[in-house]
Amino acid sequence: MGTLELRGVTKTYGAKKAVDDLTIDIGNGEFFVILGPSGAGKTTTLKAVAGLVDIDAGDVSIADTDMTGVEPYHRNVAMAFESYALYPQKTVAENLASPLKSGRTGNYSEADQKERIDTVTKTLGINHLLNRLPKELSNGQRQRTALGRVLVRPADIYLLDEPLSHLDAKLRASMRAELKALGGLSNTTTLYVTHDYQEALSLGDRVGVMRDGRLVQVDAPAVMWRRPKDVFVARALGQPEMNLVEAVVENGAFRIPGTEVSVPVAQGLDIAQGERVLLGMRPGECKVVGANGEAGSGSVVVPGKVLLAERLGRQTELDIETGGPNLISTVAAHLAPDEGSAVDVAIDLSNIHVFKAAENRDDSLRIGSAAGADMREEKR
Ligand SMILES: Nc1ncnc2c1ncn2[C@@H]1O[C@H](COP(=O)(O)OP(=O)(O)OP(=O)(O)O)[C@@H](O)[C@H]1O
Hints:
By secondary structure, this protein is an alpha+beta fold. The chain folds into two domains: 229 residues, P-loop containing nucleotide triphosphate hydrolases (Rossmann fold); 144 residues, CATH 2.40.50.140. Helices cover 22% and strands 33% of the residues. The strands form four sheets. It has a six-stranded mixed beta sheet, with helices on both faces. A six-stranded antiparallel beta sheet has the order 13-12-11-14-20-21, with no helix packed on it. Strands 15-19-16-17-18 form a five-stranded antiparallel beta sheet, with no helix packed on it. α3 crosses α4. The chain is globular, with a radius of gyration of 24 Å. The chain starts with a strand and ends in an 11-residue tail after the last strand. The chain binds adenosine-5'-triphosphate (ATP). Adenosine-5'-triphosphate binds next to β2 and α1. Keywords: ATP-binding, Nucleotide-binding, Transport. GO terms for molecular function: ATP binding. InterPro entries: AAA+_ATPase, ABC_transporter-like_ATP-bd, ABC_transpr_MalK/UgpC-like, Mo/tungstate-bd_C_term_dom, NA-bd_OB-fold, OB_MalK-like, P-loop_NTPase.
């Protein structure tokens, strides 16, 4: 176990700053997730911690010890890459036992080894595959075995790079729950990298959203979901993505061009007449209430017509014409209106995120919700 600190870590490849002045403090036993799109610098960050790349600036400390000049072998980190490194001629059981036999993380009796392997393989659902060779496994099983090799041995830090990426959606969801349980049990500081927001929100004690080598926001999942710092973070969380609708402040209200909709500007929002904003509304929070349905106080109603209704499992995704920008709404499939129906979409004011429109849309900063500015004490 140990803390992990990165101070001003920078790694450049040619003209590209893969990691740009990155500072993170990860607590002992914390499960920290880096979420970001392809090329954001996630893997390079893990490699910097593992000592697998030479960093240009900054430093990494593990368990309060500066790792500058310390070889990867001596850092006591266990890393799982997206590509799985397994011994092809060894069985699953032998692959899992090999990290325990190296002696560098302690000596394990046969019984200890068996117990550790048992716990990990049961958690990962691969305990029926112990006698198979890697070539006799599916990609998902191979990936779980590779993850098992990492989790089986104690380390100060686990570094996990998209370890569930080759699993199908169902298995991935169940593995998330099991990994969480395993993390809780082992209490090992973990730095976990993913581009899957559900994984990030469900696994992370804290999540850091990475963009172009920098962390844009670091927060607990619930805080980040409620208060994404900018449009980039807001778009990174949620599938389908948050609806983003341009609006202008006129006479104390946000007016959405092309519609009759006007959302009152709540007190305390730092916004001036004529300013352009983006109103963000998550599809799951755009509630279809039927035409002329009851919206209730504290919400805004947008009348529209269902252009497309696409059933996706238990949910249906609706594309709703409003006269202005279309809105995407997700509803339980059995409640979904037919294509062509007139509907009202009700959105709670507190679920309407207000971003000051920036030249690059992703840079637009959140200033609060349509219900008001964020209260400081609500932040944590
Ligand atoms: N060995 C390398 N040589 C040159 N450029 C590299 C190298 N490794 C990474 N890069 C570049 O650095 C940037 C960050 O890469 P990195 O692999 O860390 O991103 P990532 O967030 O892990 O992406 P992905 O999710 O696709 O794995 C990218 O622009 C990538 O092309």
